[in-house]
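Section 3.1: Structural characterization of target chains.
Under the original work plan, the team committed to producing a structural model for every single-chain target entering the pipeline before any wet-lab resources were allocated. The record below documents one such target. The sequence was received from the expression subgroup and is listed exactly as submitted; it comprises 243 residues.
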Amino acid sequence: MKIFQVIIGTEILNGRREDKHFKFLRDELLKRGYELFASFIIKDDPNLMENIFTLIKNTPDSMLFCYGGIGATPDDYTREIAAKVFSGNKMTFNDEFKKLIDKRFPNEDNTNKYSLALWPENAKPLWNNPVNKFPGFYIQKRYFFMPGFPQMAHPMTQEALEKFFPLKEKKERYTLIAFAKESEMLEIMKKIPKTVEFSTLPKLDYTSEISFAGKNAKEIYEWFKNELNKKKIKYKELPSITY
C-alpha cells in the first residue's frame, strides 16, 4: 500500500496560512501501523492537480488523502479534477447532500450551493464534519477528499481511517549509532536484504544512525552488529521502538 497526501492551497505556498495537515495525517497513520509514501503541497492549479492525481492513480496499490479545493468558488477545482482522473470525467449530484443544504438553508434559492454536492460519479460521503455537517467524499474506498479547514477535514480523515485502515500489527525498530562514516560500512549495507526496512541517517560528526524494522529486522540487526564487530567499528545501541 502506497499512501499519498495532497494538500491543495496557494495560500500555504505564499505564506498566508500554515499547513496543519501533514503532521496530523502522518501521526494518525503511524498510530494504526501505516506510513505515508509521499506528500505534496501544491497550488490551486488544474493542470498540476491533474498531473499529481494521475501519477497517484497510476501507482500500484495507491491511496490518497486530499485536502482543500472542494468548495464552490471558481478557484476550487478538486471535485472536477478528481472526476476527470478517477471517475471517467463523470459527475453526479449527491442527493443526501442536496437535502442537507435545503434543510440548513430553508426558504432560500440554493441553486448555487448545490454545486458543493456535485461529485465524481460513484463518490460516497464522509459525514464526520462537526462544524457544519457538510460531507467530504471518497472514491473506490481509496481516494479521500476533504475540505482545507482542519476542523472539518481531520474528523473526516479519522472516519476514513476507521472504516478502511484496520489496525496493523505493531512493528519493532532496532537502532544503533555507528562511529564510522557511511563509506566505511557501504559493503555491509549492500548485503542487507531488500525485505527489511533499512535506513541510515549520517551526522555531521561522521557517525551514522542506522535502523532496521519490518520482517526479520531483529535477525538482520544482530547480523549487522556482528559485521561491524568484524571490521572493528564501534557502535552504541539505542532502545528499540515499537510503533
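The radius of gyration is 23 Å.
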